[in-house]
Amino acid sequence: MQLSFGSPRRRMAAVCVAAAVLLSGCVTNAEGGNPDGWEPVTPDAVPEIVAMVPPEVAAKGTLTAGTNPPFAPFEFKDSQGALIGLEMDLGRALASVMGLEFQPSEMDFAMIMPAVQAGSIDAGMSGFTDSEERRESFDFVNFLYAGIQWASQPGSGVDPENPCGLIVAVQRTTVSETDDVRPKNDECIARGEEPLTVLSFDTSDNAALAALVGRADALSADSPATAWAAQRSDGELELVGEMFDAAPYGFAVQKDSGLAEAMAAAMQHLIDTGEYQRILDQWNVESGLLDEAMINEQPYREATQ
Hints:
This protein has helices at 8-23, 25-28, 47-50, 55-60, 86-97, 109-118, 132-135, 175-190, 204-212, 223-231, 259-273, 275-282, 300-303, and strands at 62-67, 76-77, 83-84, 101-106, 123-124, 138-152, 167-171, 197-201, 218-222, 238-254, 294-295, 298-299. By secondary structure, it is an alpha/beta fold. The strands form two sheets. Strands 1, 4, 5, 6, 7, 8, 9, 10, 11 and 12 form a ten-stranded mixed sheet that branches. It has a two-stranded antiparallel ribbon with strand order 2-3. The longest helix has 16 residues, at 8-23. The radius of gyration is 20 Å and the shape is globular. It is found in: Cell envelope. Belongs to the bacterial solute-binding protein 3 family. Its main location: other.
């Protein structure tokens, strides 16, 4: 179907609106933003895992979590403003196994870790990479391995290994910016080649939109976020190159609080029963899945011995 939108400026505005609709299933999807065929996963409580929950958490009956949408498919809002996404589904399932109600709340990203440390929330669930530096202050219940993945318009010829002269969109302060495109730009300059231009955005959605409408040659983002954008782009974006720099994602909790052990036991239950696989399948996440629960990238059963 061909449409006429008048002036070039109006045509670009129309393209941006259409692209936003494609990428923002949270406002157009008839299922309220969840993928087709999505169903809630709320397993029964497991008594021996319920008994592992720290008394102060058990007493209030909730597992509280801070999150910072939009970061699809991990967390974003549906058309009614409810928090949804892969991490929200995993958090709810873990809470159910632990005999708790799941209570997520939207927060500024920079405030989540301090809130966990202060005890005002139980966990940070917002695409946190489990790093050695962060482990000094927090325990991480791992749930997925993810790396950096590029995407571009079909037929663009973009090669992440040869990025000099490209315009690449990223979410500001993510590893895609700090560890991928900016170091690559430095290498281009050092070799006397054309610099790489970095377009930094506040959200991964806006970075993907820039690549979708041609403002950027490519998108660099965490692999599940890139895959999600490509899946929702109606064929206007495709993955290019291989995923690289894989690292574990984790739910951040107070260090040595005992909550990590309870959550990891619940995660192991989800893995053993197939519910973990089911949740990730519903969000079309096919790589980086765990075979066993881990705390700080160590197998849960070894960490608790």
